[in-house]
Every structure is written in structure tokens, then in C-alpha cells.
Amino acid sequence: MSWTDERVELLKKMWGEGQSASQIAKELGGVTRNAVIGKVHRLGLSNRSTGATPAKAEAKAKPAEPAKPQAAAKPKAEAKPEAAPRPASEPKPAAPAPAPVETRPALPARKQIIPAGQPLPPQPSANEISPEALAKVSEVEKKAKRLTLMELTERTCKWPVGDPATDDFWFCGLPVQPGKPYCEAHVGVAFQPMSARRDRRR
DNA sequence: CCCTGATTCGC
DNA sequence: GCGAATCAGG
């Protein structure tokens, strides 16, 4: 595989979005994360804010470096005068403010209805799950890796989010709970202590 | 352990 | 220019 314009484009885009090198590599295919990182550096787009290991590329002491001109600061005239903003923040589609958990009624009322306008997929329903757990879930979904089916591994949370029939579908992808298929938050709602299961009596 | 990015250096 | 190997941090 070679770095075609399109591939570089996608690389830039994803890197800009804060995607990790490995994720970008998976997306591109045919390259390893090393290749991606190498390219990123060659392209000059290195440090994003604080991803994981920033400080150290700068604090470099050159002991035996006589002269290192390295004329940086390229005037680089803007070839695109029109408005083509490069939002550092990804466009958040819709962020329906989740129900705050702050309110602590004396009596734990199990209301907390899932704000679904459409019938949800066979997702483990939230019947008798503690509002705590639910809140935690909606909270964690903000930090989800949003993996595709192919990106799931033995240790990525396989909790599905969204409607499989639409684009807005992905898997949590956060680190799983040891021995479980889901991350901590999702384990919380996935495995219920089997309670009211006796409606069906004969 | 699994993940991240950074750097080096032979190709 | 490329990227595996290696390094280093979380």
C-alpha cells in the first residue's frame, strides 16, 4: 500500500479527530500503526493536544549538536481564503442531555425511561436496572471508541450502540471487564441479578 | 498486560 | 519516503 492522496487525506482527518494511530491503521488497512505514526511525523502533523505521550518530543537536549539551523516557520500563504474552518472539535450530531443523576430522592423510584422514539434493537432492555448504572452507561458512551464490528477484539467492549440499520451504529470498544464481553459500565446493565423474572407462572 | 505515540535507521 | 523495531509512558 502506498500513501495516496486519499489515504493521506483520511489519515489527516482521523488524526485530527483524535483517533489513535492504530485505529487509523485499521481503517486504512494495509498499514500498521507504525506506518501511520511515521507518516504523521513526516507530514509534520505531530502533537495533538494531550493524547498519551506528548511531552518529550520537545524537551530534547542536543549535547553534541553543533548547529541545527532547521529553518522552521514557513510563511505558508493560505491558499484557501474562503471559510473552511478546521474545527478541532468534531461535530457533535445530537447530544440529548441525559437525565442528571444529581437528584437523590429519598425513595429510589425506577423511572428512567430510555428516550427512544423508535423501537430499539434487541438490546438488553433496561427494566430493573439502577438509574446509577444507566447514567453511567450514557456517560461512558461519550468516551466510547465507537468501533466497527471488525475492530472488536477479545478485550474491547462489545456493547452495541444505536440502530444497526443506520450509520449511527457502533460498538463501545472500551476495555472490557476481565472475563466479560463488556466494559464495566455495560456489564452493569448487561448482567442483572435476575430479579423479577417470575411474571410467567404456570 | 494492553494500549499509546516517538524515534531510529536500514532499505 | 517508508515503516519495522525499538523505546518510553500510561
Topology:
Elements: H1 5-16, H2 21-28, H3 33-42, H4 131-140, E1 160-162, E2 169-171, H5 184-190
Antiparallel strand pairs: 1-2
Helix pairs in contact: 2-3, 4-5
This protein binds a DNA duplex (11 and 10 nucleotides) through helix 3.
Helix % is 10-25%
- Alpha-beta content class: mainly alpha
Q: Overall 3D geometry?
A: elongated
Radius of gyration: 23 Å
Structure notes:
By secondary structure, this protein is an all-alpha fold. Among the domains are: 5-43; 128-190, no CATH class. It contains five helices and two strands, in the order ααααββα. A two-stranded antiparallel ribbon has the order 1-2. A hairpin with a 6-residue loop joins strand 1 (160-162) and strand 2. It starts with a helix and ends in a 12-residue tail after the last helix. The chain binds a DNA duplex (11 and 10 nucleotides) through helix 3.
